[in-house]
Amino acid sequence: MSQTNGFWKVVPPTAKIIAAISYVGFGLLMRFAMLPTDPDMRQWLDWQKDLFSAGVPLVVPLYVLVVGYVYGDAKRRGMRRVMWTILACLPYFVGVIAYFILRDPLPRPCPNCQTVVRAAFPFCPKCGTSVTRFCSQCRHAAEPTWAHCPYCGANLAAGLPTTAGPGE
Fold first, then answer.
1. Are residues 22 and 70 in the same domain?
2. What is the pLDDT of residue 79?
Protein backbone atom coordinates (compact mmCIF):
# COMPACT_ATOMS: atom_id res chain seq x y z
CA MET A 1 0.00 0.00 0.00
CA SER A 2 1.41 3.38 -0.91
CA GLN A 3 1.64 6.19 1.62
CA THR A 4 -0.85 8.41 -0.18
CA ASN A 5 -3.37 5.58 -0.46
CA GLY A 6 -3.05 5.08 3.31
CA PHE A 7 -3.58 8.80 3.92
CA TRP A 8 -6.82 8.85 1.95
CA LYS A 9 -8.14 5.75 3.74
CA VAL A 10 -7.61 7.38 7.15
CA VAL A 11 -9.16 10.78 6.33
CA PRO A 12 -12.91 10.65 7.04
CA PRO A 13 -15.28 11.35 4.11
CA THR A 14 -16.68 14.39 5.95
CA ALA A 15 -13.24 16.04 5.96
CA LYS A 16 -12.84 15.33 2.24
CA ILE A 17 -16.22 16.94 1.49
CA ILE A 18 -15.47 20.00 3.66
CA ALA A 19 -12.07 20.36 1.96
CA ALA A 20 -13.60 20.18 -1.53
CA ILE A 21 -16.36 22.68 -0.72
CA SER A 22 -13.92 25.10 0.92
CA TYR A 23 -11.55 24.91 -2.07
CA VAL A 24 -14.28 25.65 -4.58
CA GLY A 25 -15.80 28.36 -2.37
CA PHE A 26 -12.54 30.17 -1.67
CA GLY A 27 -11.46 29.86 -5.31
CA LEU A 28 -14.67 31.43 -6.58
CA LEU A 29 -14.57 34.09 -3.88
CA MET A 30 -11.03 35.08 -4.80
CA ARG A 31 -11.54 35.01 -8.55
CA PHE A 32 -14.82 36.85 -8.77
CA ALA A 33 -15.05 38.96 -5.60
CA MET A 34 -11.56 39.82 -4.39
CA LEU A 35 -9.37 39.98 -7.49
CA PRO A 36 -11.58 42.33 -9.56
CA THR A 37 -11.81 44.85 -6.70
CA ASP A 38 -8.09 45.06 -5.93
CA PRO A 39 -6.56 47.99 -7.86
CA ASP A 40 -3.15 46.32 -8.31
CA MET A 41 -4.56 42.97 -9.40
CA ARG A 42 -6.86 44.49 -12.02
CA GLN A 43 -3.79 44.89 -14.19
CA TRP A 44 -2.98 41.18 -14.08
CA LEU A 45 -3.66 39.01 -17.10
CA ASP A 46 -6.54 36.51 -16.87
CA TRP A 47 -4.25 33.47 -16.67
CA GLN A 48 -2.38 35.09 -13.76
CA LYS A 49 -5.64 35.71 -11.92
CA ASP A 50 -6.74 32.12 -12.59
CA LEU A 51 -3.43 30.71 -11.34
CA PHE A 52 -3.53 32.87 -8.21
CA SER A 53 -7.15 32.01 -7.44
CA ALA A 54 -6.42 28.30 -7.93
CA GLY A 55 -3.27 28.19 -5.78
CA VAL A 56 -3.93 30.38 -2.75
CA PRO A 57 -7.23 28.70 -1.74
CA LEU A 58 -5.39 25.35 -1.41
CA VAL A 59 -4.19 26.34 2.06
CA VAL A 60 -7.54 25.90 3.84
CA PRO A 61 -8.50 22.52 2.28
CA LEU A 62 -5.05 21.08 2.95
CA TYR A 63 -5.35 22.14 6.58
CA VAL A 64 -8.82 20.55 6.77
CA LEU A 65 -7.42 17.30 5.33
CA VAL A 66 -4.55 17.24 7.84
CA VAL A 67 -6.95 17.81 10.75
CA GLY A 68 -9.18 15.08 9.31
CA TYR A 69 -6.19 12.75 9.14
CA VAL A 70 -5.41 13.43 12.81
CA TYR A 71 -9.02 12.57 13.70
CA GLY A 72 -9.06 9.35 11.68
CA ASP A 73 -5.60 8.25 12.80
CA ALA A 74 -6.34 8.91 16.48
CA LYS A 75 -9.57 6.91 16.15
CA ARG A 76 -7.66 4.06 14.48
CA ARG A 77 -5.09 4.02 17.30
CA GLY A 78 -7.68 4.12 20.09
CA MET A 79 -6.65 7.60 21.25
CA ARG A 80 -8.82 10.55 22.28
CA ARG A 81 -9.78 11.65 18.78
CA VAL A 82 -11.88 14.71 19.69
CA MET A 83 -9.17 16.14 21.94
CA TRP A 84 -6.47 15.63 19.29
CA THR A 85 -8.69 17.10 16.57
CA ILE A 86 -9.23 20.24 18.65
CA LEU A 87 -5.49 20.48 19.34
CA ALA A 88 -4.73 19.97 15.64
CA CYS A 89 -6.69 23.17 14.92
CA LEU A 90 -4.12 25.26 16.82
CA PRO A 91 -2.30 27.79 14.64
CA TYR A 92 1.03 27.03 12.97
CA PHE A 93 0.45 23.24 13.05
CA VAL A 94 1.52 23.10 16.71
CA GLY A 95 -1.16 20.54 17.56
CA VAL A 96 -0.44 18.45 14.46
CA ILE A 97 3.26 18.33 15.28
CA ALA A 98 2.49 17.40 18.90
CA TYR A 99 0.16 14.65 17.70
CA PHE A 100 2.79 13.06 15.46
CA ILE A 101 5.33 13.17 18.29
CA LEU A 102 3.00 11.75 20.97
CA ARG A 103 0.72 9.34 19.11
CA ASP A 104 0.40 5.74 20.26
CA PRO A 105 1.58 2.81 18.13
CA LEU A 106 -1.01 1.04 16.00
CA PRO A 107 -2.85 -1.76 17.78
CA ARG A 108 -2.33 -5.30 16.47
CA PRO A 109 -4.63 -8.31 16.18
CA CYS A 110 -4.32 -11.24 18.58
CA PRO A 111 -2.89 -14.25 16.72
CA ASN A 112 -5.44 -16.51 18.43
CA CYS A 113 -8.82 -14.70 18.52
CA GLN A 114 -8.16 -11.67 16.24
CA THR A 115 -9.19 -9.19 18.98
CA VAL A 116 -7.50 -5.81 18.50
CA VAL A 117 -4.85 -5.43 21.22
CA ARG A 118 -3.10 -2.18 22.10
CA ALA A 119 0.64 -2.20 21.44
CA ALA A 120 1.42 -1.72 25.15
CA PHE A 121 -0.33 -4.96 26.14
CA PRO A 122 1.84 -8.11 26.08
CA PHE A 123 -1.23 -10.40 26.32
CA CYS A 124 -4.65 -10.43 24.70
CA PRO A 125 -7.26 -9.20 27.20
CA LYS A 126 -9.87 -11.57 25.73
CA CYS A 127 -8.11 -14.93 25.48
CA GLY A 128 -4.80 -14.40 27.30
CA THR A 129 -2.59 -15.33 24.34
CA SER A 130 0.82 -13.70 24.26
CA VAL A 131 1.12 -11.08 21.52
CA THR A 132 4.67 -10.12 22.51
CA ARG A 133 7.86 -12.19 22.41
CA PHE A 134 9.77 -12.66 25.66
CA CYS A 135 13.40 -13.42 26.45
CA SER A 136 13.88 -17.01 27.64
CA GLN A 137 16.45 -15.90 30.25
CA CYS A 138 15.03 -12.79 31.96
CA ARG A 139 11.42 -12.84 30.70
CA HIS A 140 11.50 -9.21 29.48
CA ALA A 141 9.51 -8.34 26.37
CA ALA A 142 11.52 -8.49 23.16
CA GLU A 143 10.92 -6.82 19.81
CA PRO A 144 10.58 -9.17 16.82
CA THR A 145 13.67 -7.72 15.11
CA TRP A 146 16.04 -7.98 18.09
CA ALA A 147 18.85 -10.54 17.89
CA HIS A 148 19.89 -10.16 21.56
CA CYS A 149 18.01 -9.19 24.70
CA PRO A 150 18.94 -5.63 25.78
CA TYR A 151 18.40 -6.55 29.45
CA CYS A 152 20.51 -9.70 29.85
CA GLY A 153 22.29 -10.15 26.49
CA ALA A 154 20.78 -13.56 25.74
CA ASN A 155 20.66 -14.69 22.12
CA LEU A 156 17.04 -14.27 21.07
CA ALA A 157 17.45 -16.15 17.80
CA ALA A 158 18.19 -19.36 19.73
CA GLY A 159 14.55 -19.70 20.63
CA LEU A 160 11.98 -17.56 22.34
CA PRO A 161 8.93 -18.78 24.14
CA THR A 162 5.96 -16.88 22.80
CA THR A 163 3.48 -18.01 25.43
CA ALA A 164 5.42 -17.47 28.66
CA GLY A 165 5.22 -14.04 30.19
CA PRO A 166 7.19 -12.12 32.79
CA GLY A 167 5.52 -13.80 35.78
CA GLU A 168 5.44 -17.38 34.49
1. yes
2. 92
